[in-house]
Amino acid sequence: MAVENIWFFCLLSLGYCGLSVQVPSASPQLSLLSTSPTDIRAMWLPLSSQLSRGAITRYRIDYRALEQVDHIYSVEVGGNETQVTLRDLKPNQTYQLRIVAGTRAGFSQSSEWASHHTPNLTQVLFAPTELKVRAKMHSLHVTWQPPPNHTQITGYKLSWRELDGEELPNEEKPMINERIQQIKLRKRVKHHEVTGLAPDQLYEVKVWAFNKQTEGYPAVWKGRTEKLTRVRTTDSLPPLPPISIRARANSSTSIWLRWEKPHFSNVRIINYTIRCSPAGLRNASLISYYTSSSQEIFLESLKPFTSYEIAVQSKGVDMSGPFSSTVEESTLPDRPSSPPLDMQLSVLDSYSVLVSWRPPLEPNGVILTYWILYTGNMSHPDHLWINLTHDGSVTSAEAQGLMSGTRYYFKMGACTEVGVGPYSPVKDVYTPPKKYELDIHAVTGIIVGVCLGLLCILLCMCVSFRNGKTRYAPV
Fold it and tell me: What's 243-330's CATH class?
């Protein structure tokens, strides 16, 4: 009887275990991307406790090539994983993937097949590698490494957006906040701080490379900022930095800057501090600071055709918050502020002079053309000087068709799309007089003529000599 009771309690315990741990009622939603032509990265969000019906112990990802749907391959990862990379695939091929979640009781039903086409190496830019995000309460520190074909890229783009709601399964897609913020970063940048975020909120971050022809595949991260920690009433948090900072060049020396208040702030913001410096500047003494009580400012006295890095800081009554992430904007081009450097004149012959130079120190834009002006009379106004125009990519040119034995005066200027800049100091050069030069053809003709004349004389002499001997011969 005791043995029967033991078996009864064992079966009852097994029954309770079966009731407490069940098969998941849904499978996660897959998000797919490629970082090279031969791999696919599958990512998903964990199931909620209501859908998982117990602790998830493993995930299984099935995949197949669209051309061979009967050949299905599988890979399993642990229940704490949220991504897996399938490698050694064929480039420029379409693959289908699905996922199932498993507890100790078994696997859920498979998700629907999701299709993904692996890229072609010669046509696309691949996603940045080693994307890592360190989440703080109000910011995300994003770092990455260049993609495999990094020599083809011009820079990076980084976007972030807030995801509304909890992490939902595939049948219940989360509503996406349409407020997507995006910035453009230079090629050498490998990290960025996204600030002005709300605590304990789900965000999505994307980083991708671009060039003049196309934009590459993104590296994607999803996660939460840290929860708001309680502080003592005597303590206070500094104000958050502004958001949605927008910069627009207004002229060659000015930029309009606008921003919005942070969504969350525990103190009253009384004004803002703006930090502005040329991009890539390492000399702290050249950083400029401005103050504004409104949510915009007109930055003046800037250098033409220069890229500036700008950040904004919120200020409370007795405290200042951190600076926002930087935005970049370039002032518009202008006429060159300085002439071409080191103009040199070299006489080639009596009729031509070689002019050489170096680009100006302050071009204030892309040099489109160089203007070389010269004259034989320095008192002439500029419009009477002869103007030679040459492409902005050259640094030497010939002035031809000059007069021999003449002193010429030269000066030159550089020209952008806005106009020509100041002219260089005038330099003079003397073309040597024309030298007497024998015409080789005329000389050859003279020599030939003389030779023919001598030959004729010689023949005449020979004929006369023979005739004389014949006339006086003895009988």
Answer: mainly beta
Which superfamily is assigned to 340-431 in CATH? Immunoglobulins (2.60.40.10)
pLDDT in tens, 106-141: 898 889 899 998 877 666 677 888 888 888 888 899
Question: What does the alpha-carbon distance between residue 432 and residue 62 come to, in Å, rounded to a whole number?
Answer: 86
Per CATH, the homologous superfamily of domain 22-120 is: Immunoglobulins (2.60.40.10)
Same fold, 22-120 and 243-330: yes
Q: How far apart are CA 45 and CA 25, in angstroms?
A: 15
352 DSSP assignment: E
- Of 386, 247, 406, 438, the C-alpha closest to 326 is 247
Cβ proximity of 107 and 61 under 8 Å: no
**Of residues 288, 15, 51, the one with CA closest to residue 172:** 51
Q: In which element (H, E) is residue 310 found?
A: strand 307-315
- Pick the more confident residue, 13 or 456: 456
SS3 of residue 49 by DSSP: helix
Render pLDDT for 434-473 as a digit per residue (tens, 0 to 9): 875 555 666 787 888 888 888 888 888 887 777 766 655 5
| 250: confidence class by pLDDT, cuts 50, 70, 90 | very high
The whole-angstrom separation of Cα 395 and Cα 223 is 55
Do the beta carbons of residue 200 and residue 228 sit within 8 Å?
A: yes
Quote the CA–CA distance of 381 and 358 in Å, as a whole number. Answer: 25
CATH number given to 124-164+180-228: 2.60.40.10
Domain limits, the chain: 22-120, 124-164+180-228, 243-330, 340-431
The type of residue at 466 is R
Distance CA 168, CA 147 (A): 31
Strand order in the sheet with 129-135: 129-135, 140-145, 191-194
Backbone angles phi, psi at 408, to 5 degrees: -115, 150
